[in-house]
Specification:
Elements (H helix, E strand, L loop, with lengths): L9 H12 L4 E4 L1 H7 L8 E4 L3 H7 L4 E3 L7 E6 L2 E7 L1 E3 L11 E3 L3 H6 L8 E4 L3 E4 L3 H7 L1 E2 L5 H7 L2 H13 L2 E2 L1 H9 L9 H12 L4 H7 L1 H4 L23 H11 L7 H13 L4 H4 L1 E2 L5 E2 L3 H15 L4 H13 L8 H11 L1 H16 L5 H23 L11 H6 L6 H15 L7 H10 L4
Parallel strand pairs: 2-5, 10-11
Antiparallel strand pairs: 1-2, 1-8, 3-4, 4-5, 6-7, 8-9, 12-13
Length: about 450
């Protein structure tokens, strides 16, 4: 039993002291202990205690409580607008659905409660004056950078299949690896992930993809992730031509996720890009052909990949903005970019600057996961030139009707009857401006219409 000290928030300390003053043992437990030992700021401070739920209600009767988890021993106390979950020590019954215990048994023993937890790094407790309670080697695994199940891994995953994905999310979040027996059990149990709700699968996979070590985790554990996204499995070992590539399709996708530069992106942009990069080549195995020269080709993988990504994201019940955003990027991620102003302005008109900036980020990550060859470097330079000029034109160019120096009222004042013809004429003028045939000036635009006999 260590005497290490963890700095507790005032409210968490107050809750522990209140429970202890009432004659109960109590500790902060789980992720907050793990993160504190890693020097990270915990997001939540969970507490475990010998007090039963009815006793918790009595002790904190003067506080706002959330009782939705009371059946499983959890009462949340709201202090200064923040919920603190307090859970009675318990043993879990059988898990017939591979997700939830059929029953729980409240106990007085902290050790028994810690034994039911998922991973050693999450099975530590702390109380002021007692220090860290670490019965399963959590501190050793933190130091070694390992995610290891408490007890027998097969039993832990049989109890709750979602723990398989949680294990991978923790490896990506913490930069750890799976302990070999834990990895083997996760692989053996991957098909039980089908019993978990789509919403929970999406949440865990989303957390994995947004974590700093996502690329490394994808590269190491693609076969396990095939239990959630089976379309991954044909990508593993699917070779690509050496002139461009140094990885198979799956390792390339993982390397692209690792290469993503998400600086300057908002929350939605980050999520769209992580998922789009994860799935950008998902249809390559279905499109693979071998030419007379023996090189592999993947004609049509953009469009088929977009279709596959939509199927996957809908299956996972991902948000609509994410599905549409990722699918849109995947559909054109390997398409050539225009080099001339007219082409760039038309692309801005069709797709918008936000989409095109995201597309460039995806293209950079994709190319940075290719082989380091002159051909790849040349393509990256093309993207850089496009991105630079596109940003300039997005600020100064005219590529939408509202940026035109004339509007519908101007055309009707000039004699064009109200109706569909107004919109069609505006589109004609916009195209001429984007192509550089007319300046975006009111007099010049109206003069051009008069010259063409449209006024």
């Amino acid at each position: 039993m260590s005497r290490d000290t963890i700095r507790l928030p005032r409210d968490a300390y107050r809750l522990l002291q209140t429970l202890r003053a009432a004659g109960h043992s109590a500790y902060v437990v789980g992720g907050c202990v793990r993160d504190s030992l890693l020097g990270r700021l915990p997001g939540d401070w969970d507490i475990c205690t010998s007090a039963r739920p009815d006793q918790l209600r009595a002790i904190f009767h003067d506080q706002r409580l959330i009782l939705t988890g009371e059946k499983h021993g959890t009462v949340a106390v709201i202090l200064h607008g923040k919920p603190y979950e307090i859970t009675t020590y318990r043993l879990d019954g059988s898990y017939r659905d591979h997700r939830h215990p059929d029953s729980v048994q409240f106990v007085d023993d902290l050790a028994a409660d810690l034994a039911r937890r998922d991973f050693t790094v999450n099975a530590m407790a702390y109380a002021p004056g007692e220090g860290i309670i670490d019965l399963y080697g959590g501190r050793r695994d933190l130091a070694a950078g390992i995610v290891r199940c408490v007890g027998t891994p097969a039993d832990r995953f049989a109890e709750d299949a979602l723990r398989i994905l949680r294990a991978l999310r923790f490896t990506a979040k913490l930069g750890f690896t799976l302990e070999p027996a834990t990895a083997a059990a996760a692989l053996a149990a991957r098909d039980t992930l089908r019993t978990v709700s789509a919403e929970r699968l999406y949440t865990e996979l989303d957390g994995l993809l947004l974590a700093p070590g996502a690329g490394k985790t994808l590269a190491q554990y693609g076969e396990i992730l095939g239990g959630v996204v089976p379309e991954i499995l044909p990508c593993i070992g699917c070779t690509q031509p050496g002139r461009w590539h140094c990885y198979d399709v799956w390792q390339h996708s993982a390397a692209a996720v690792a290469a993503l530069d998400l600086r300057g992106q908002d929350t939605r942009g980050v999520r769209v890009l992580c998922w789009a990069t994860f799935l950008h080549d998902i249809a390559k195995p279905q499109c693979r052909t071998v030419g007379p020269d023996g090189a592999a080709h993947f004609k049509g993988h953009n469009q088929r990949g977009a279709q596959a990504a939509r199927t996957i994201l809908r299956r996972l019940k991902a948000p609509a903005y994410l599905t549409d955003g990722a699918v849109g990027l995947i559909a054109v991620h390997d398409a050539p970019l225009p080099a001339d102003d007219a082409g760039i302005l038309k692309l801005l008109n069709r797709s918008g600057a936000i989409f095109l900036r995201r597309l460039c980020v995806l293209k950079y990550a994709d190319l940075d996961a290719h082989a380091a060859t002159p051909e790849v470097a040349a393509r990256r330079a093309e993207v850089e030139r496009f991105a630079c000029r596109m940003d300039e034109l997005a600020k100064t160019g005219c590529y939408t009707m509202r940026q035109l120096a004339v509007n519908g009222a101007d055309l009707m004042d000039a004699g064009i009857p109200a109706g569909p013809g107004v919109g069609a004429t505006l589109q004609t003028l916009l195209t001429a401006v984007m192509e550089g045939r007319l300046p975006n000036e009111k007099a010049a635009l109206l003069a051009a219409l008069e010259k063409e006999g449209l006024l």
